[in-house]
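Case 508 in the screening queue. Each case pairs one protein sequence with one candidate compound; here the compound is zinc ion. For every case the pipeline is the same: read the inputs, emit a complex structure as tokens, and attach any notable structural observations.

Predict complex for case 508.
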Amino acid sequence: MKQTNLLWLCLALLLFSCSKDAENIAPAAQDNSLISNAMEHFNTSVLTGTAVEAQTQSANSNNYRHNIIKNAEWSNAKTVQLSIGEAVQVPLSFSKELYAQVKNSPNKLALSSLSYLLMYRNTRGWQTEVVHRLPDAAYLANTAINKSFTGMVLVENWQGNFIRGYSYDGNGTVKKLLAPRVKGSSSETQVMYEMPSYECNKEIDWYTCSSWECHYSYTETICSWTGGESGGGDYSGGSNDDGGGHHDGDYGDGNDSGYPSSDDYSDAPLEPRKVEVAVIPHTTITYNPIASCIYGKLGPGNHAYDKFLVEFQEDSEYTVIFKLQDNLTDYRGYPANGTTNYTIGSTSITILINSSRLDRPSWEVAGTFVHEMAHAYLAQKLVSIGGPGNLKQYAENTNFTDLFDYYSKYVKIIDNKHVYSPEENSSAQHNLMADKLITDIAIGIRDYVEANTPEIKNHSEITLEQYKAVAWNGLRETGAYTSLSTEEQTEIGINTTILQSFTVDRCI
Ligand SMILES: [Zn+2]
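Case 508 output:
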């Protein structure tokens, strides 16, 4: 009897949860159910177990790119309209970032910013594609807002097998591509001799990049079909995501094939990846009484925190970690109050504060925190586009205009150079900060001082000028500072002394 009751209770709960789900879905747009259906198919059929297994199942193992574990970021999935109907587009992230060198361009582009998962339904059921879009140098150099895509698109299945590919030139000509081959493999010469109707001058060089330099990994050679319309049909060599047989060369551009057209892949503009920051104090901060006191007064509500960090906080993908380090030095080996460290391709930015210099007045230490927050603000933007080498393509995006201007001015652009020296990064960022962010830094320091000693607000002698004087710390090797007159530089020193005389040195 008890068992029956329990069974009824379970059934009642199930019914309740079902109807609740139905209520939630019904009023919403169909888009959400398309995304959830795609996700269900992806999880149950495409991954067939774990992503790692699917990744190695029938991957083209001589291609390094296919052996990197990829993840579909379903929380950022969206629906897109293709010529064949609605489809689901999902950003991809990779366990290790590779960078594509764009031919005749200094740019290296992060694979995650070029790639997405595309899922759509046709008469054969769900189709799953991994799309890589590789713009060419002309596309990257073109600063027009509504430019057409030029470059290459490679479409592969989840396991990395080639399905189809296109190259787009500036005249609206679209050529079909063959599967990429790793340069140096024995088949390459055969391609050149036995398939004279293909041209094989397309190559992608792949790099792995650390903080300051990139290392060449390998080259993929991609040939395009030049033998007219009919020839390029059946070269897929891939299988569909359900593990079924070969496709029959029906990947035409026509809409009646049930597959996307070449225009479907070239229409959408490249977008910088959406990035967000979560702010984490390391235990070295939280266990240190001085650092934790100062850090605690620099949180939400502080102008610098709100401007430099909070904007990116929700649904955090990127993180800023604050950490103490003894005897911290800068890239030259000189003692540093703080440094901001990040790796292109990583999602984490680390701010190191020199614990050997916490005995300075607390408003000065707070100034170091705020100064590094401004670096983190810039670093996060740079990481989001795969490094300063990619700034040019975002130059017209107002979020990147200043960075583009200052990196153009303070960095020696050398071909094939993607990440710049610490010195170049430092001068580009410090000059930008001195010209554009010094008031925000000063307000952040003021908010700290007013939180620590509220009575300072009553002193009419203290204005933003005194806080600006503190904000110049760390920004003296800039054009903005050296162009100040000797009198103005002396005034900055005097203003610091005035502030010192009106506030306490300790964080209380
Ligand atoms: Zn700095």
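Case 508 observations:
- The chain has two domains: 30-266, 292-502.
- The CA atoms of residues 261 and 446 lie 57 Å apart.
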